[in-house]
Amino acid sequence: MAQSRVIEAYLTELRYSVAKLADADDIVDEAADHLYTAVQRLTEEGIPMADAEAQVLGRFGSAALVARVFAEEAKRGAAVSTSLTRRAGVAAMASVGLVAVGQAGNDLTSRGVIHGAFLVFMAAGFAAFATGLWGIRRRHGGLGAVGRVAFWWFLAAPFIAAPFLYASPLVLAIEWLLIMSLLGVGMLRARVLPPPAVMLFTMSPLFALGVVTVMLLAGLDAGPWFLSLLAPVALGYGWLGWAMSREPALDVRSASSRGPLTTA
Distance (Å, rounded) from C-alpha 87 to C-alpha 245? Predict the structure, then answer.
């Protein structure tokens, strides 16, 4: 089929519109194949070339619209729910209870086997917390640059906090809160999980840190209030974990092991 100037002009505009995307060449090649094939089919049916081009381009959509769709998909990344991300969601929910019980027991006891058991609860809670963060990032296809920064920051956080000695647990907690908000920003762009849960997950750490900062600047003791301020953070994190655990896992095939939201 002869090259169409109309379609060539459209593809040039499309290439310009998607130039910033990593797979721009593939997008344009795929669009070209679809457009030329559709036009050829219509002309073989007896429709004049100009009319065929107009029909095909009208159905395909403007270059700006197509570019916007691909840009949105690029933000989402390889957002796929699997059995692993569902388990990570369960871990995220469990981390809230484990850390809460461990912290409460740590405050009420000071030594002995019982105190050690509560410390084990806290350690398990932190491990479950990390697993949940890993699952959130994996669920959203890595979250691009935001996800990479959050991942490496999470790994480096203990080493950054260590020089602060007795204040290192507080510094580590602040780092983790900021990491959660950073992930939340990427999740808001991806628009995969429930927006209210993502908003709570994103904004509540910033709110807690903001209140603590104001109290410290005012010369007040923020310590007794810090755990209370973390309640919305825990709620947002647990909510996201619940949402992830309820999603249908795409790698599960047997009917008996389907997720609760799987449809026939």
Answer: 6
Structure tokens at 236: 């947002």
Do residues 212 and 222 touch, judged by C-beta distance below 8 A? yes
Which backbone phi and psi does 14 adopt, to 5 degrees? -65, -45
**pLDDT tens sequence across 96-105:** 999 889 888 8
Helices (H), 140-194: 144-161, 168-190
- The dihedral formed by the CA atoms of 173, 179, 180 and 181, expressed in degrees to the nearest 10: 110
The residue-averaged pLDDT of 150-175 equals 88
pLDDT tens track for 28-49: 888 888 888 888 888 888 888 8
Residue 246 above 70 pLDDT?
Answer: yes
Residues shown for the chain: 264
Separation CA 69–CA 74 (nearest Å): 9
State pLDDT tens for residues 67-125: 777 776 665 555 568 888 999 999 999 999 998 898 888 888 888 888 889 889 989 99
Tokens of 11: 């593809």
**Six-digit token string for 54:** 């107009």
DSSP state of 167: G
Q: Report how far apart, in Å, the C-alpha atoms of 54 and of each of 40, 44, 62, 99, 230 are.
A: 13, 15, 11, 62, 58
Spatial separation of the C-alpha atoms in residues 77 and 23, rounded to whole Å:
12
Where along the chain do its domains lie?
5-76, 83-257
* CB-based contacts of 248-253 (< 8 A; 24+ apart in sequence): 248/81, 249/81, 249/82, 249/83, 249/85, 249/86, 250/80, 250/81, 250/82, 251/82, 251/83, 252/83
Structure pTM?
Answer: 0.62
pLDDT at 261: 36
